Amino acid sequence: MHNRRQFIKDAAAGAGIVFTGCNLLSHRLGAQSGSRQAKRQVMVGGRRVRTIDIHAHVIIPEATALMGVNTPANDPSVMESKRFEVMDEWGTDMQVLSINANWYSADRDVAQKMIRLQNEKLAELCAAHPDRLAAFASVALQFPDLAAEQLEEGVKKYNLRGAAIGGHVNGDELSAPKFDPFWKKAEELNCVVFMHPQGIPDLQKRLQGNGGLTNVIGNPLETTIFLSHLIYDGTLDRFPGLKICASHGGGYLPSYAARSDYGCVRFPDTCKTIKKKPTEYLRQLYYDSMVFTPEGLRHLVAECGASQIMIGTDYPFPWSTTTVDHVLNTPGLSDAERRAILGGNAAQVLGIKS
User: Fold this and answer.
1) CA angle at 299 for the pair 293 and 302, rounded to the nearest 5°
2) What's the pLDDT score for residue 71?
3) Across-strand partners of 97?
4) Alpha-carbon dihedral sign for residues 94, 310, 350, 138
5) What is the pTM assigned to this prediction?
6) Cα-Cα-Cα-Cα dihedral of 352, 246, 326, 315, to 10°?
7) How many percent of the chain have pLDDT more than 70?
């Protein structure tokens, strides 16, 4: 705890520090920009709502360089000079930054250096702009014991809100017992684990061609497989206190969850290891709101509960530019549910104080 406070104090004390690690902004710590347009104020039932985007990306080029990956200067995750302006236009008060895991093939030494650098840079950004940014730590899940240590350091030293992970590690499902040290640490720390898919290598051939299927179908499918293994392989029973947030609305699972229950009736031997119906686990998981239509969001709420959903934009990728209006315009939600989805749930689960 002392290390975390000291790190934040040191980061915030440097009025002359300019952050260039991901080109987030060109102004100094604590500087206020007078040239930006007025921030959109989101209101629900006559009350101001602080909106928190759980799904937003960034890249640290210095870190990816350690793997020999040159991040172009025009990469959308590095072109950050307008991030706050876009947030203000969309009505996003805070983003929770995550870095998509592309380091699971790295050896231990490179992984240690890369993760340390990424988490330090993320912490600097958040310390500089605590009212606008929070972040998930990176962890090297190919080494579960190291990942557990990195998660603890990220939370306790750098004040990060949990970890961002991929949906598998070099083809291994994260429900495998070898990953239990990481899950145990995440449960112990009571922090969020945000899962973002990284593709399904086994399906690359099937997903080639028109339609961008590796993303459009592949990403939600990987999320579906990831969650299903956590349920059926008993990870959620072994670690019932886990706070897992699945990107892309949980993939296809919430939309066809009843088949999972009926599958246990049809093939009971495949469900002997779990303690509840598969659909019951859905209400202990969390999801972003990236389901695009009012009916999609209504159904996600019906299956999983409004308390489990947080807005996600996938910024800077142009998937969900109307995320706030999506929640405001979905019929059937109460004001309390809208406030919860827009920011209340994220504030509570991430420990973000008002």
Assistant:
1) 145
2) 78
3) 56, 135
4) negative
5) 0.88
6) 70
7) 87
CATH class, range 52-350: alpha beta
* Beta bridge partners of residue 309, listed in sequence order: 287
Tokens at residue 268, please? 């009971």
64 burial via Cβ count (<10 Å: 0-12, 13-18, 19+):
buried
Which of 36 and 326 is assigned the larger pLDDT? 326
Best CA proximity match to 241, nearest among 282, 184, 291, 197: 184
Task: Please report how the helices 108-128 and 2-13 are oriented relative to each other, as an axis angle in degrees rounded to 10.
Answer: 60
pLDDT in tens, 180-201: 999 999 999 999 999 999 989 8
3-state secondary structure the chain: CHHHHHHHHHHHHCCCCCCCCCCCCCCCCCCCCCCCCCCCCCEECCEECCCEEEEEECCCHHHHHHHCCCCCCCCCCCCCCCHHHHHHHHCCCEEEEECCCCCCCCCHHHHHHHHHHHHHHHHHHHHHCCCCEEECEECCCCCHHHHHHHHHHHHHCCCCCEEEECCCECCECCCCHHHHHHHHHHHHHCCEEEECCCCCHHHCCCCCCCCCHHHHCHHHHHHHHHHHHHHHCCHHHHCCCCEEEECHHHCCCCCCHHHHHHHHHHCHHHHCCCCCCHHHHHHHCEEECCCCCHHHHHHHHHHHCHHHEECCCCECCCCCCCHHHHHHCCCCCCHHHHHHHHHHHHHHHHCCCC
Q: What is the mean pLDDT of the chain?
A: 89
In the chain, what are the domain boundaries? 52-350
Average pLDDT over every residue of 153-171:
97
pLDDT over 90 at 26, yes or no:
no
Q: Given this model, what pLDDT does residue 68 score?
A: 85
